[in-house]
Amino acid sequence: MTTTARLPFARPNVLDIAPLYEVLRREGPIVPVTTPKGDPAWLVTAYDQAREVFSDKRFGRSHPAPEEASAVSDAAILNGPQGDYDTEQQEHARLRRLLVPAFSANRMRRLGDRIQELADRCLDDLAAARDATNTPVNLHEHLSFPLPVLVICELLGVPYADRAKFRDLSDRIGVLDSGGDAQVAMAEFTAYMSGLADAKRADPGHDVVSDLAAAQKDDPTFTDDDLGRLAAGLLFAGHETTSNRIDLGVLFLLTDLNRRDALAADPEGRVHATVEEILRMSAPGGLGLLRYAHEDVDLGGVRIPRGDAVIISTASANRDPAVFAAAGEFDGARTPNAHLAFGYGGYFCIGASLARTELRVVFGTLFRRFPRLRLAVPASELEVRSNRLTGGVSQVPVVW
């Protein structure tokens, strides 16, 4: 393929995706690009083709010849091939069987009251910080970061007291240009989770890590390293992505106070559609989800040879005007809203119910509690974490 533009593309601010996506989408649903690492890849920009790649078993996370695979970045996840080419489908099915009970919709509904309790505690802390200083307070530090961490720690059985440790490790494994440190951090993260699993074997609890440790008794091929990497990935994904979407959702609602006021006037009636639109519109990172062609595939008018890297831009697909009316506009009442924020098909995100539950609690409560909440600085002044896999911001200063 002849590569052209290099990811990640320049974007005007944290709420808008790069204008180049629209240009490339007009050229075709699948276009050649260069990864941040400098390797060739295909970029999927259109909704229909994104769904096809997600659901087509001819694409996978593994590679038939890993040493020849295009790499994406120096981050420790979504950076290159994952898993074994010969056993990927079986391994994926096994992990889904292990995790589905922990992340079932019924369990998430039961967890809802506890999430509400934790959210109320975070909002109490936000109010106290504002009262203590009478200056703008960082909503990221008081709500967007701690709430998902509290929830995922409780679900996995991870001590909340260790949050500084895994916050540092999470930051490091997601750095796109880490120069190798991301892999060091992932090894530390895996060792930490493996050690926690040892403790759970001796004193099990009602949590996911205890369940995974118990599963090893029935499946000796599920090694300590497998468990550690899986648990580390769950911990990373379980707080990083939700934290970013809380931040971006607040920014979407506070950059147009009509949106804020509409939700504040009817939080119960509007929160579901608002959350789905936040999921559709928020694009914290500037890359996408990585797959490799396991055989030659004709897709979107392009022949993708076996072994080629394919990056699915859910951010671009979720703003495809062929599917979404006024695709670039935030509409808190949009319906239907069949976005791809959690993927599609067999690789649909197993934590989707958890994320939705957290977001509905947050946005159903935040503006009921603080109906006059507003940004203390223009959103355009917020620094975007452009060298992080998950992107986002670390400051959301607010007043009320």
Features:
three-stranded antiparallel sheet; 400 residues; 48% helix
What does this structure look like?
This protein has 400 residues and is an alpha+beta fold. Helix content is 48%, strand content 8%. The chain has a five-stranded mixed β-sheet with strand order 1-2-8-5-3. A three-stranded antiparallel β-sheet has the order 4-10-9. Strand 1 and strand 2 form a beta hairpin. Helix 4 runs antiparallel to helix 6, helix 4 runs parallel beside helix 14 and helix 12 crosses helix 14. The chain is globular, with a radius of gyration of 21 Å. It starts with 19 loop residues before the first helix and ends with a strand. The model has no long low-confidence stretch (mean pLDDT 94).
